[in-house]
Specification:
about 300 residues, Rossmann fold, 7-stranded parallel beta sheet, about 40% helix, globular, binds nicotinamide-adenine-dinucleotide
Length: about 300
């Protein structure tokens, strides 16, 4: 390090007025200079979610379950919102006191409205929405050649509309409270990149074409909402996972691992840190972003 720079650091370190500076009135009056989580809080405090209420749609799912638990571990009151009452109830029970199950079909506008309203009524605020539901029809997952226009339309509608509808209702509740809120939408690596179809060779799996439209849509919807809702204190971001291990079969898993810089598929827990960060005040100046959690898949 050049000696000039060392001296500057020494000067700052020895400045007797240094500790007094942050609390001065002019600084706290400036929205630009004022940290959202306050001068006295530490970065550890900023990740703390005590006092916040989070709704996780698809909270009983592979990823939603881990995310619900992670948000509760950080102190949030969590509403596990899922259409599957049996699994959703179990998830809430496993997490314990901080978690509550809500039986919700996110493709039903009335259900979504009721979910948001009752959450605010019961817990006093809605601070975090995580869109992690994965509604699809019985034909979802077909090959490009087998898919029909009806299936395309139904799956895009079920998935993309429900993400919008939950975000729309949640943002209305967040705008109405002084503290704003944070919305996290689950995207995918396939929202930013085309599938590598050689990955599926020798397996029964594929990446359905609807998924490309849904996830591309979710990511740009995220940017739109972030831009529109920023002035209302509502942050909107996306987390885009790579493939999460779920017994996909040996051939697929090996082929996936070979293409991934970190050499493995994701575990659901790998996604939790990204969501907790974006939900928390540690990300108070982050909006409209897509946090890709993929073991490096998309860098090559
Ligand atoms: N698993 C992966 O490999 C992966 C990779 C990239 C992105 N993602 C994304 O992450 C999100 C979560 O995926 P997952 O793997 O946890 O899916 P999942 O199928 O394990 O869980 C989805 C949950 O949504 C619930 N759900 C379905 N329809 C619903 C409805 N109409 N109303 C309410 N709940 C409903 C299901 O009951 C289930 O509990 C999705 O957006 C998915 O696209 C997943």
């Amino acid at each position: 390090m050049p000696s000039g720079r060392k001296e500057i650091y020494a000067t700052i370190a020895n400045d007797p007025t240094r500790d007094e500076q942050p609390a001065n009135a002019a600084a706290t009056e400036s929205p630009t200079r004022r940290p959202a989580f306050g001068w006295s809080a530490t970065m550890t405090d900023a990740f703390d979610l005590h006092g916040k209420t989070a709704v996780v749609t698809g909270g009983a799912g592979l990823i939603g379950r881990a995310v619900s638990r992670g948000l509760a571990d950080h102190g949030a009151t969590v509403v596990v919102a899922d259409v599957d009452a049996s699994r959703g109830g179990k998830v809430a029970d496993e997490i314990g006191g901080h978690a509550h199950f809500a039986s919700v079909d996110v493709t039903d506008e009335d259900d979504v409205e009721t979910l948001i309203e009752t959450t605010v009524e019961n817990f006093g605020s809605l601070d975090v929405l995580v869109n992690s539901a994965y509604p699809r029809n019985e034909n979802y997952g077909q090959s490009y050649e087998e898919m029909t226009l009806d299936d395309w339309e139904e799956n895009v509608t079920l998935n993309l509309n429900s993400y919008f509808s939950a975000a729309y209702r949640a943002s209305a509740a967040m705008r109405a409270q002084e503290t704003g809120g944070s919305i996290v939408n689950f995207g995918s690596i396939y929202g930013v990149q085309a599938p590598d179809f050689t990955l599926y060779e020798g397996t029964d799996l594929t990446s359905p074409v609807e998924y490309a439209a849904i996830k591309g849509g979710v990511l740009n919807l995220t940017r739109y909402l972030a831009s529109y809702l920023g002035e209302h204190g509502v942050r909107v971001n996306a987390v885009s996972p790579g493939g999460v291990y779920n017994d996909q079969g040996e051939t697929f898993v090996r082929q996936y691992e070979e293409r991934t810089p970190l050499g493995r598929m994701a575990n659901p827990d790998d996604l939790v840190g990204a969501v907790v960060y974006l939900a928390s005040d540690a990300a108070s100046y982050v909006t409209g972003q897509n946090l890709v959690v993929d073991g490096g898949w998309t860098i090559s």
